Amino acid sequence: MRTQVAIIGGGPSGLLLAQLLSTRGIESVVLERKTRDYVLGRIRAGVLEQGLVGLMEQAGVADRLHAEGILHDGTLIAFAGQMFRIDFVERTGKPVIVYGQTEVTRDLYDARQAAGGQIEFNVESVTLWDADTDKPHVTYTKDGQSKRLDCDFIAGCDGFHGVSRKTIPESVRHEYEKTYPFGWLGILSETPPVNDELIYANSDRGFALCSMRNANLSRYYIQCALSDSPDDWTDAAFWDELRRRLPQAQADRLITGPSIEKSIAPLRSFVTEPMRWGRLFLCGDAAHIVPPTGAKGLNTAASDVHYLYSGVRQFYEAGDTEGIDSYSDRALARVWKAERFSWWFSNLMHRTPDQSQFDLRIQRAELEFLRGNAGAQAAMAINYVGLPY
Ligand code: RFL
Ligand code: PHB
Asked: What domains can be seen in the chain, in order of their start residue?
């Protein structure tokens, strides 16, 4: 089989790239290790920047997002029993949109299917060959049969645990990593959200986040130990702990119900450089991870897709390699800013066993500065709504 762009991974990065390319008549084949239902079963991001919304519009898949997504003009930050608001629209002129990654992915799958796009599910043993030459190819097995896909470019959109990044020789690859000594325990429940805007809470007992998917679907997180497993937490224990971490008024208003999903995610900051090796281009979680505080993961994947899509278009439409040659530098410049913001916001909001009294007072001073200073709020809001591409 032959295509122009072989896309490894059918998560949001791979699907969005495939859909954008198809609007310009550029062919691709997406190779996905799991099934569509498995990918849609992963509950992840919930907050979209305007940049990603714009890409969904360009890809012709934004109708449902505009109809069902909820505009958020600001967010709330709770600490020491009090709460203040950062108004994104006042500080930056832009809101964010709450619309789940599951829905983004579902819309993209539906659009690929409607356009007759090729997606191979349940593929195994994906291997990238000759990626540092002008004639790369990919081999894989499906239903026990060996297959070969020849292409001009390979887009490595296969997430943190994928094969694409590891194909780049260690002598070329530089990895930068920071792990955090805690995770997030998240639950999804069919209950009305406790508040109409997100609440990020720094409490003596650790971080908590109140988020949502729609008027009757809430997403809540609490900071937990890395050694915890979701089975250690009954729903009742989760709700009790969440209440203890929220300001009293919100704790009293919280409507609880059975969880329909419960999972733990470790927090990690990770970047690999460069994001290009020959004809292989890494996109999204394959190249970088941010801790979820600040909701930058999916949005940073989207900016990579934007730079890669522009570069590939420039190559096919104008015979110009400038866009693909500058891909890694342009993507990384924005990635590192998202890394910095996510790291800063994570440090501001979490409690760790090794924090000294000095550290705690610095954290408190920074929260008070943010509450009282328009410049600090503007800096936070500019990053939260998303830096320009
Ligand atoms: P994905 O979503 O991991 O998709 C990669 C796909 O590649 C497939 N794959 C392979 N396919 C073929 N061969 C192989 N060898 C393969 N290996 C893997 C996988 O099955 C999968 O389908 O990466 P992608 O597309 O780059 O998308 C990245 C986002 O998923 C991620 O950044 C966000 O979910 C992060 N994130 C958030 N981001 C935001 O922008 N806003 C948020 O509010 C937000 N909240 C979150 C989050 C991530 C979380 N977790 C669980 C890590 C909240 C949480 C709890
Ligand atoms: C979510 O709704 O899953 C969510 C929202 C904001 C974050 C992280 C996750 O910072």
From this structure: 5-71+96-177+268-345 (3.50.50.60), 180-267+353-385 (3.30.9.10)
- Catalytic residue (one of 296, 306, 309, 350): 296
- pTM for the full model? 0.97
Spell out the residues 6+ positions from residue 371 whose beta carbon is closer than 8 angstroms to its own. Answer: 77, 82, 84
State whether the beta carbon of 47 lies less than 6 angstroms from ligand 1. yes
Distance between CA 13 and CA 283 in Å, rounded?
7
Residue 42 pLDDT level (bands cut at 50, 70, 90): confident
Whether the CB of 293 sits within 6 Å of ligand 2:
yes
Residue nearest to atom 26 of ligand 1 (CA): 284
Written as one string, the DSSP assignment of 364-389 is: HHHHHHHHH-HHHHHHHHHHHH----
pLDDT tens per residue across span 264-299: 999 999 999 999 999 999 999 999 999 999 999 999
CA of 211 to the centre of ligand 2 (A): 6
Is 72 a known active-site residue?
Answer: yes
How large is the C-alpha radius of gyration of the chain?
A: 21
- The two three-digit tokens of residue 7, written as one number: 């896309």
User: Is 292 part of the annotated catalytic residue set?
Assistant: yes
* Cα of 386 vs its chain's centroid, Å: 12
Interhelix angle for 374-385 vs 327-349, to 10°?
130
Q: Is 389 a catalytic residue?
A: no
Q: Identify whether 200 is a catalytic site residue.
A: yes
Q: Is the pLDDT of residue 353 over 90?
A: no
pLDDT > 90: percent of the chain? 98
